[in-house]
Design brief:
This protein has seven helices and five strands; from the N terminus they run E-H-E-H-E-H-E-H-E-H-H-H. By secondary structure, the protein is an alpha/beta fold. Bound molecules: 5-O-phosphono-beta-D-ribofuranose.
Length: 188
């Protein structure tokens, strides 16, 4: 991640993580963690569609020229930032509905996902900035074989963890039922 995380910098980055308020950061930093894991250069910026609309337009006008390939935009409530950025840009915008205290994030979700035809935002589940980071990596992997290999390894690690949790659960249940591993083997 760039040093100038929150205010932005002029270091070239592949992904820009943008959010409407610093209060979105606890949700949005999961996207940065994924990009760190895949060694994808990124920045984190605060730009508000409502509080700093001119900054939002300036960001949208210059992001592509700076080499940004994918934007991850998170906002909560009347969450207009992802859609407005999609209207200013030709690169993919991934929207993260940030859940606020009221309405459980349903307001954020609908504000982001219900875009008019012609202006798409790839919307992830409420609060799921991890998937936004992974989707950005997959988009960049189209042109980057090494990222694609690493994504394949990541998926395999998920499968492995899932299978292991199934084995662990079976062992725990057998132990709770007083069945020893050798008894369990005899029964299969
Ligand atoms: C939105 O308003 C932000 O994205 C944030 O989710 C929400 C609340 O902002 P704060 O009042 O916490 O700054 O624009």
């Amino acid at each position: 991640m760039n040093d100038d995380k929150v205010t932005g910098s002029h270091v070239p980055v592949s992904v820009s993580i943008v959010m409407g308020s610093k209060s979105d950061l606890p949700v949005m930093e999961a996207a940065a963690a994924v990009l760190d894991e895949f060694d994808v250069l990124h920045e984190i910026r605060i730009v508000s569609a409502h509080r700093t609309p001119h900054d939002m337009v300036a960001f949208g006008s210059e992001a592509e020229a700076r080499g940004v390939g994918v934007v991850i935009a998170g906002a909560g409530g009347a969450a207009h930032l992802p859609g407005m950025l999609a209207s200013l840009l030709s690169i993919p915008v991934i929207g993260v509905p940030v859940p606020l205290r009221h309405l459980d994030g349903m307001d954020s979700l609908l504000s982001i996902v219900q875009m008019p035809s012609g202006v798409p935002v790839a919307t992830v589940a409420v609060g799921n900035a991890t998937n936004a980071g992974l989707l950005a990596v997959r988009m960049l992997a189209i042109q980057t074989p090494d990222l694609r290999r690493r994504m394949t390894a990541y998926r395999e690690s998920l499968s492995q963890a899932s299978r292991q949790s199934g084995l662990d659960l079976r062992t725990e249940r057998q132990a709770a039922d007083g069945i020893s591993p050798s008894d369990a083997r005899d029964r299969t």
